[in-house]
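Fold this complex.
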Amino acid sequence: MGAGILGWGAYIPLLRLPRERIVEHTAWLNPGLRAQGRGERAICNWDEDALTMAVEAARDCLQGRRPTLAELQLASTTLPFADRSNAGMLAAALDLDESVATLESGGSLRCATSSLLSRLRAGAGAGECLVVASEHRLARPGSGGELRYGDAATALHLGDGDDVVARFLGGATMARDLVDHYRASDSRYDYALEERWIRDEGYFKLVPEVCTQALADAGLEAADVDTLVFPGPVRVGQALCRRLGIEADALADDLAGRCGHAGSAHPLLMLAHVLEQARPEQVILVLGFGQGADALLFRVTEAIAARRPALGVHGHLALRREETHYLRYLSFTGQIGIDWGARAEHDKRTAQSTAFRKRRAVTAFVGGRCSACGTAQFPRTRACVHCGAIDTQEEHRFADSRAKVKSYTEDWQAHSPAPPLMYGSVSFAEGGSLMMEFTDFAPGEIAVGTPLRMVFRIKDVDEKRGFTRYFWKPAPARSA
Amino acid sequence: MARGIRDKVAIIGMGCSRFGERWDCGHEDLMVEAYAEAIADAGIDKADLDAAWLGVFFDEQNTGKSALPLSMALRLPNIPVTRVENLCATGTEALRGAAYAVAAGACDIALAMGVEKLKDTGYSGLPERTKGTFEDLYLPNSTAPGAFAQLASAYANRHGVPMDDLKRAMAHISWKSHQNARTNPKAHLRNTPSIEDILNAPMVSYPLGTYDCCGVSDGAACAIVTTPEIARSLGRHDDLVTIKALQLAPSNGVEMGHDAWDGSHTITTPLAAKRAYEEAGIRDPRRDLDLIEVHDCFSVTELVIMEDLGLSPPGGAIRDVLDGVYDADGEVPCQIDGGLKCFGHPIGASGLRMVYEIYLQLLGRAGDRQLSNPKLGLTHNLGGIPIRNVAAISVIGLHGA
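Structure:
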């Protein structure tokens, strides 16, 4: 039997920035950028980051299931907090039990594949684990990275037994400090080295070595590989196929034209994309690259037919909204100083003791349901809002509730990083109502009765103290 | 039910400062301006005051905490002073404190002052403020126009009305208030935009444009109250104005806690109105009330309040507004002084400013905007926002009316 992947989920932000929109503002400094001006890249809305995308990818994977997890691993090089458990916030937003081990990995674009390998090598009996990789990538305006990068997250549910959809066959890892690019701890931006050097000394030497070891570990030949997940340039991938003896058509779609390179999350995103169209017995080789390399081999099982993410990579790629303003993208990423006026000066200090006391409400979106009259309500209080009974409220989570718009406005006076601030009263299907801030809607798209789903997003950024706080927001419901 | 205070408290003096962007005045100057008019009107001495109530909302933006700013501005002779705050119902709360003290017999003569100095923030609109340590973690960073604008979407949906029709009635409401304020020398906004100007104004919070929003103003208003007996001893006979009712209905969270409310009106106003009508002995408000001053912070608020007060039938306010029922020459003149819309809205003063207008009208002292022989008037404040608010109503009339 052995360990493997039980399920997968993905998240790609709704907003897509056509590369043409970038190049038209940057080609003046480097006409060569025009050659990279095709396709589009996924970008976070102002209220999204690596944490919020991780929450959505995990929800896409679990779809309301509540598996008994032993461990939650969050892999990223762009998490919002350097010293505050991002994985702990992810666990809280997913309403996981506090006894689930929460770990983070980072430090290299290889961190997600390394987490995956480490966990799969622990094998059967280690308990189920959710590995979530997420990247909110930033590159200096006018750089090649700005065009290449994309924002996305992927979640893999690991375990063993008959429900494994892709069984782990073996793998290998290698740490070698080849500095293809780097980012210092106190820097916002990557420093990139020459591509041909990375190709010749990096990809062409490290990858064959680690692949050979992984194939030996799995007892397979290169010719057995049906699909190669290679998170690097397509031409390099094609050359690697030739060198390794893998069929040229085994190279998996790198999603560059529709999403962009999602850093450490990218190999997992490509793997998820492959799994969504995989057939039983298909052998998949997954590579991770970054100051060394990881290689993992999987064989798809018959169980693949039974498990699907809510939207997955395909579904998320199909759900898109074009961002037409390059300046808005620069503003969302904090790379341009906009005059937000005096209202933006309002102090966003968080009362941490309040936030801690109310963490179930704020992070997990847990309200109450009165055991005397049955009324669902938010927030959960000691006295029922309907019948007034004291201490009768049981926990009720609204995060996965269906909801619709009761009233709304588009407010140009309120401060928002993406004006107008849209908010209104929301009715939950099971009862309960709350005035909330809408997200991912454009002006004119909201009406009374518009169906909604709840997403975990940035509520406010306290610039003065470097603190980000989160809450749930209603976004457009998916037709599915 | 309690018997209430109908005709137990008389108003013997009132004053109101000019409202507007009073760059040259602080809160203490505004209070003195309103007080000087009120004490002269009452014909009493400062030494005759037994107690005073101060209403101010944004204390952190102007007066600072406590009732001391009133005691110090007027140099009161160390009499008891109390500060009250209940959102936009603050001015009515100050009057309620003073009136209840007189009705209880604890005071012979009491003063109620409402003041707000808003124009020291350095930006337009109401000041930004915290909503509470927990509320800040989940409520949207809403503004007053955005919170009230939602009434329009829910109202249009509930009654199946196209937004354009609702917008036209809202424009008429603002047009009417601008017309009324034209001859009011104390009003903040005295220009007279056309319906087209109003409809084409820049959007503030959909569907509210600039002219759908009231003025953010500096100002103060003041009332001096006593018993009818003392009022008569002071020479008030035929011109005795008394309080017929003072009622309050605050939210308990139902609007937002669960889904019983559709967002198209206020839950609190009908409750406060029912109690006030009972206390005042009003059976048919549309027939019995000669004028009303309601909380028209936004045009759509005034529209739904006409139904919540039982003056227009549910869904009927648009027709009544467009038919001119609430115009100066209509069946129930509303905001004859310009209302919050044009007289202005210095929050703590607004409830008392409304009573001031009723008082002037009852005594035939309203100048160019004087109505013909009014005997009974109503004021209505809505503090807060539709999802959580305080409705405050007073009924003021000639003694015996």
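The radius of gyration of chain A is 23 Å.
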